[in-house]
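Long-time lurker. I teach an intro course on protein structure, and each term I like to show students one example going from raw sequence to a predicted 3D structure in token notation. This year I'd like something fresh instead of my usual example. Would anyone be willing to generate the tokens for the chain below so I can use it in lecture? Attribution to the forum is fine with me.
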Amino acid sequence: MEVKLDTIIFYVKDVQNLKIFYRDNFNLKIIEEDDIWVLLNAGNINIGLHKMGKEYAEKISSNKTNNNVKIVFEVTMPINDAREELISKGIKMKEIKTFENYNYWLCDGTDPEGNVFQLKKRK
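-- Reply from a regular --
Happy to contribute to a lecture. Here you go:
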């Protein structure tokens, strides 16, 4: 079987809030949307934001979805500038890091629901 990854879907509490977050901070294009769903284009892949069911949302006590997925955005500007731009908008960002024999700088942040995203820039 040959496949191509098309879309990653996040089940979220507030579709509209996260739509605005990803559209405004990462310039993602809205492909489609309705009351419980938004599909954003992120280059070679789409990101779907689907409203989670009420019974699941009630089990989450904090503002975190506790998932194990990280979205990685490769940036064209210097990673320090990208990080500072997001921090200036009140977005929580960690320090920039890299690994031995790895050709990228990395910096993690979190969206309004606690989902982790990463900025990536070639050295």
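Some talking points for your students: Residues 87 and 102 are 25 Å apart (CA to CA). The first strand starts at residue 7 and ends at 12.
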